[in-house]
Specification:
The protein is 38% helix and 22% strand. It is α+β, with helices and mostly antiparallel strands.
Length: 226
């Protein structure tokens, strides 16, 4: 069931069942997407950052993960009043919106349970990859973070050649925040990654040498699909 749906196939499946349930919207960069308890979104293109509160009493947030094509956001409210994560577009983004009452209706039928599997698997990948950061020694946390970001952006890394280019919205400051490293530790390890030729600068965005990453840090890249 690893390749149960592509994002486009998932949208088409919803349209087959509920032809009028899906609407496409274009969102500008740097837009916070509020919880309105009525709508969920499926990302068509672009990048959205998810932030969580550092603690209950603090208003500051930590960048938890990067969401891109095929990801659901604001889905938690289908089942509860979850508001522990906020979302912001990092680049111009296109999304499909679906009313949560329509999504509830769609998921109500047993034959549509693969839809729920697809959604929850997408969530699970974010949690799984984030947990790997806490299992790495400090020297390898940045490498793991960069692999995570590449995988979240392009789940089938085998389709790519040696170099994968990340869009410019994946800035050093955002990668640092995602990695949870201190500023001093992050820039120390970032410099080392450039010296190892794992990372290359380009005009279009950060380039990641995945072949060299697998050669130098084989444990970073899972051997099995997830």
């Amino acid at each position: 069931m690893d390749n149960l749906f592509t994002p486009d196939e998932f949208i088409n499946a919803i349209r087959d069942t509920l032809p009028n349930a899906i609407n496409e919207k274009k969102l500008p960069a740097n837009m916070e997407i509020p919880f309105n308890h009525a709508t969920s979104y499926i990302i068509k293109s672009g990048t959205i950052a998810g932030y969580i509160s550092r603690d209950i009493e603090s208003k500051s947030s930590q960048l938890y993960s990067f969401f891109s094509k095929g990801d659901f956001i604001l889905f938690g409210q289908v089942f509860d009043d979850f508001s522990g994560m906020t979302f912001e577009t990092l680049a111009p983004t296109s999304v499909y919106s679906i009313k949560q009452k329509d999504l509830q209706y769609l998921l109500h039928f047993p034959e549509n349970s693969p839809f729920l599997y697809y959604i929850m698997k997408r969530f699970g990948v974010h949690y799984y990859l984030k947990s790997h950061l806490s299992m790495r020694v400090k020297e390898n946390v940045l490498i793991q973070a960069i692999f995570n970001i590449c995988f979240l952006r392009h789940p089938d890394l085998k389709e790519f050649d040696r170099l994968l280019t990340l869009p410019k919205e994946y800035t050093a400051s955002r990668i640092k925040e995602y990695s949870t490293l201190s500023q001093a530790g992050f820039y120390k390890h970032l410099k080392h990654a450039y010296e190892q030729k794992l990372l290359l600068k380009s005009e279009v965005g950060l380039q990641v040498d995945l072949e060299r990453m697998e050669e130098l840090y084989p444990s970073t890249i899972p051997k099995k699909a997830f």
